[in-house]
Amino acid sequence: MSLYHRRRIAAVRQALDEARFGAERTLNLRASLPKPPEAVARAEAWLRQQQVDRAGEVLIITGRGASSPGGVSVVREAIIKLLASLKRRGVVADHREHTPGSFIVTVAPVSAMLAAPPRRREPRIAPPLPPSLVGLDPETRTLLEQLARRSIESLGVRDVEPHVETEMLRQFGAIARGVPDGPEREARLRQAVRKTLDELDDAT
Predict the structure, then answer these.
(1) pLDDT at 126
(2) Where among 112, 141, 165 does a domain terminate?
(3) For a designed S-S bond to 168, which of 46, 62, 71, 144 qualifies (C-beta 3.0 to 4.6 A apart)?
(4) Alpha-carbon distances, residue 46 vs 21, 33, 152 (angstroms)
(5) Which residues contact 152 (CB under 8 A, 6 or more apart)?
């Protein structure tokens, strides 16, 4: 196949991807050429936000590494490891190679992340948990309390009250990992809690 035809095929594929995913559901790591640690940090934060946004399928472009030493993209290999880790942590439901330089990733519902067991060896990108939730907006605390009670009741616990605050802290810590810092962070946190409650309602 001639170089002209390969370029035409690549242009058509790019146009189809843009129509399918759009800018909001595409992370192009190839464009900025980050080092593997930076690419992993960017991809994890982005995927966690996509999870909160319930994005479904998203596209991550790593590049195939044709000009890399040995023809292997170190960024691509780092992202493959990250996706496997995030699947164990309930952030990613599935992923598959789309092209030699990109992956289609299906993000998991927020409730899957909350149900995933903690992993001691893997770093957390969230800030430390607060000693209490008194600094949160009353609406945020109310939503977290609803989620905590639903979570405890689902385990068959009859005496819910002694466990509510501890479960609120646990839920806050899990959800906050997917919400980036910024002036609207608490509003986005509330949005994530509401979506989690909606997911639980849909499942019952």
Answers:
(1) 44
(2) 112
(3) 144
(4) 15, 16, 30
(5) 160, 163, 164, 167
Domain count, the chain: 2
Q: Is residue 121 part of a domain?
A: no
Which whole number is the average pLDDT over 93-108?
93
Residue 2 resides in a domain: no
Residue 195 is assigned to a structural domain of this protein: yes
Q: How far apart are CA 90 and CA 35, in angstroms?
A: 25
- What CATH number does residue 89 fall under? 3.30.1370.110
Rg (CA), the chain: 20
High-pLDDT (> 70) share of the chain, %: 81
Between CA 203 and CA 70 the distance in angstroms is 48
For the sheet containing 26-28, what is the strand order? 26-28, 57-61, 102-107, 92-99
Q: Is 25 helix (H, G, I), strand (E, B) or coil?
A: coil
Q: Are residues 104 and 163 in the same domain?
A: no
Distance linking the first and last C-alpha atoms of the chain:
54
Q: What is the dihedral of CA 117, 118, 124, 128, to 10 degrees?
A: 120
> Can you give the residue range of the structural domain that contains 74?
26-112
Residue 166 CA to residue 145 CA, distance in Å, equals 10
184: its two tokens: 């609207």
CA 82 to chain centre: 11
Is 131 part of any domain? yes
Total count of residues recorded for the chain: 204
In this prediction the pTM is 0.65
